[in-house]
């Protein structure tokens, strides 16, 4: 009998923001799999480091960060083949996913390759957007407000149009797009309502008004913006 | 010295989707507080029931479900006064919040009343939207896709306009607005792409194509809709 594939959300980075189920599955896993920046560290593994059992087999997918999709997809092909082998010999495989597996997560590439052939279970995790809202002490959405989640790499004109039509906004993957996004928000006269959050929940977390954000934002940074009346009243 | 106020996300309903931090804080709490439907049960308390310490003091806020805001706000006034007393005598108070405290959560009303006077910490939780995506086996957003979160009570014309301009959509608080929402999605020719999820992560969870959704949807139901190309490839 084949093993079960688990896509397990680890939350935003603080290991204590892992769910009880994620903790149980990881601690019991004989095989774990996770992506790493080609040749570099794995953020997912670092979150789960203290929970992974001694002697567990680790399948590392070295994913290159290129604009073209083919090299990354080749890495998932290779990872899926290794995971298949483990599942076929009857071992469960726990895939470690930063945040939530289906919220801008790379687990969907493994899901696409493997869920037709193997039993697959998804364990949701705490996302970076609510973690950033907690860090910024800023309710994300109240009552009948709309929330729009926008990836920072979107073109400037599209970002402007989407922010203009939105109420609450979370802009993910800010990184090297910070200057562009700041320009858009400044142009809309919304700087006073925008908060910058970097590495939410980690010891090196940064929270500040967007106007005071550092020049160089890491990939794991976000801008939150609310336009409604004070949502607390 | 005053106690600390904790706004603790409990996740979507399955107690195992609580974070390790939520579990630790609730288990150690001498005072917990939570909303309940006036005269009825508390969903938040039911999620945490097995973790609350024996002998803990429980502050229950009976919140009436009325369209007018004043009666609910009066309930939070009363709750805030009781929580203040506990904090002032030096006890920490753990507020139990379904899902995430700052994602359509009522904790923001307590935060508005108390965070100026007492140290307040927010613990994010797993939201219903990624839990529904996991239940539906449907990645919510990939790569540079936009995600729009819409409350079901929005007027029909606004829902139509927002869904038309969106890529991935999560419609929350479907409940008695199901027929209206279904009409909008049908009108846009998107029925084939919409999934209905009810009570995600609970034993009575329902997942089905929107076309097959039951007539009477509970408050805790959601519709997910993706319009992009297959996001898995």
Notes on the protein architecture:
The structure is a homodimer of 233-residue chains. The first copy, chain A, is α/β, with parallel strands linked by helices and 233 residues long. Chain A folds into two domains: 5-123, Tetrapyrrole methylase, N-terminal domain (Cobalt-precorrin-4 Transmethylase, domain 1, 3-Layer(aba) Sandwich); 128-226, Methyltransferase, Cobalt-precorrin-4 Transmethylase, Domain 2. Chain A is built from seven helices and ten strands. The longest helix of chain A is centred in the middle third of the chain and has 19 residues, at 70-88. Chain A is elongated, with a radius of gyration of 19 Å. The relative contact order of chain A is 0.16. Strand 6 of chain A pairs antiparallel with strand 6 of chain B, so a sheet runs across the interface. Chains A, B: Pfam families: TP_methylase. Chains A, B: It comes from Litorivita pollutaquae. Chains A, B: Keywords: Cobalamin biosynthesis, Methyltransferase, S-adenosyl-L-methionine, Transferase. Chains A, B: Residues 5-211 form the Tetrapyrrole methylase domain.
Annotate the secondary structure layout.
The structure is a homodimer of 233-residue chains.
Chain A (H helix, E strand, L loop, with lengths): L4 E5 L10 H9 L2 E7 L5 H6 L8 E7 L6 H19 L4 E5 L9 H8 L5 E4 L4 H9 L10 E5 L4 H9 L3 E5 L5 H10 L6 E5 L7 E4 L11 E6 L7
Parallel strand pairs in A: 1-4, 1-5, 2-3, 2-4, 6-7
Antiparallel strand pairs in A: 7-10, 8-9, 8-10
GO molecular function (chains A, B): precorrin-2 C20-methyltransferase activity
Organism (chains A, B): Litorivita pollutaquae
Protein name (chains A, B): Precorrin-2 C(20)-methyltransferase
